[in-house]
Specification:
It contains five helices and eleven strands. It is of the alpha+beta class. Strands 3, 4, 5, 6, 7, 8, 9 and 10 form an eight-stranded antiparallel β-sheet that branches. Strands 1-2-11 form a three-stranded antiparallel β-sheet.
């Protein structure tokens, strides 16, 4: 488990540096994640203010558009439409090994959230909590509140709110079993209210080969 966590963490850090063009390394992993996410946020241009009032009223937009759907490796999962999953295994592995049906590691991000998704081949694993332990990084994440345990569409699901030391200070993490694989999901958000809804929407569109 320790080796899996270290591999997962090192892959995540490496891709965050690649996609945000934050090439300088520092010895502090917490600072590395802070800088990577902060660089992503800083790279997004701010909208130009309108000096003339708009007379026509418009409804306020929802925080996230949840129309996106990722389907690959014989499973599908929902995600906000303005982000796309990147294959961390293919981008960061020394051997450029992409994710497979049996194991995978994905990342999606924009200025308002970072989503991580991973899975493992684990036949007979009814309790997915070991995957929750893998994706919740004790160096930057802190579980808060009560662990939720649910049975959703015959899938054992666990979920916990988290706080983080990265630029996006709130989030949530979850793990679940589907068929012969176990999945884990984590999100960083700017507010504590967004994470549960994001996970519920993602899981509502989740399907996998049983």
């Amino acid at each position: 488990m320790y080796n899996e966590r270290m591999r997962y963490r090192s892959l995540l850090l490496a891709l965050l540096f690649i996609v945000t063009a934050c090439g300088r390394r520092t010895p502090d992993p917490n600072l590395q994640i802070d800088q990577a996410v902060a660089a992503t946020l800083a790279a997004i241009p701010m909208p130009t203010s309108v000096s003339i009032p708009i007379s026509t009223p418009y409804p306020s937009p929802t925080p996230f558009d949840l129309n996106g759907l990722f389907c690959e490796y014989q499973f599908c999962i929902g995600h906000p439409a303005d982000v796309a999953f990147y294959d961390l295994s293919a981008v960061t592995s020394n051997q450029a090994s992409p994710s497979t049906y049996q194991t995978g590691l994905m990342l999606a991000y924009n200025a308002s959230l970072v989503i991580q998704l991973t899975w493992q081949f684990s036949p007979g694993a009814a309790d997915p909590q070991f995957m929750l332990d893998l994706i919740v990084d004790p160096d930057v994440d802190t579980r808060v509140g009560t662990l939720e345990v649910k049975l959703i569409r015959n899938m054992n699901v666990v979920y916990t709110p988290i706080t983080t030391t990265v630029a996006l200070p709130f989030g949530g993490a979850a793990a679940w079993t589907c068929g012969e694989r176990v999945f884990a999901w984590k999100v960083y958000t700017p507010d504590e209210a967004s994470a549960p809804g994001l996970f519920e929407s993602a899981l509502a569109r989740f399907t996998c080969k049983q």
